[in-house]
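Hi R.,

As promised on Friday, here is the backbone we talked about, encoded as structure tokens. Could you run it through your design pipeline when you get a chance and send me back a sequence?
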């Protein structure tokens, strides 16, 4: 009997990413945020390489299935680029990855800019709307904050 492959959670700074993993992460981000969502924008924004940035992902059999990054801003940790590969959507990977990210962040305040239809998802992790909706690349977004860390509902 062969062992059942399972999802593995990973976290790394930019300098600790091997080139194959980095390529897979960037390809996933471009495939979804630029191609699937039809938003031509500078996906490679220079923040991936900052010393305080942490990259978190889930892989299975060497394939990256979900990803997010945590940026260190002046007063909060910024979660962004939350993404799940199309074939794995609905499996709960983004939620498990968010929980992992909040463990990494610990008690520091955290912020994110949610696509408007996902505010309920982020609300499960203690994020609250922190400003008016705005358009980014034609997609409605809402700034959210998690000032007082609390467990997921």
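Update: got your reply. Pasting your designed sequence below so it's all in one thread:
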């Amino acid at each position: 009997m062969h062992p059942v492959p399972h999802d593995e959670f990973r976290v790394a700074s930019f300098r600790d990413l091997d080139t194959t993993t980095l390529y897979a992460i960037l390809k996933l981000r471009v495939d979804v945020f630029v191609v699937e969502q039809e938003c031509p924008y500078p996906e490679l924004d220079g923040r991936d390489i900052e010393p305080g940035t942490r990259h978190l992902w889930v892989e299975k059999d060497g394939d990256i299935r979900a990803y997010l990054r945590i940026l260190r801003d002046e007063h909060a940790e910024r979660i962004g680029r939350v993404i799940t590969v199309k074939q794995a959507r609905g499996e709960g990977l983004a939620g498990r990855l968010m929980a992992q990210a909040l463990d990494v962040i610990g008690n520091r305040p955290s912020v994110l800019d949610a696509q408007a239809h996902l505010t309920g998802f982020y609300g499960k992790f203690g994020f609250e709307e922190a400003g008016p909706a705005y358009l980014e690349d034609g997609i409605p977004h809402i700034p959210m904050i998690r000032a007082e860390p609390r467990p997921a509902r």
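One thing I noticed while checking it: The chain has a mean pLDDT of 90.

Thanks again,
M.
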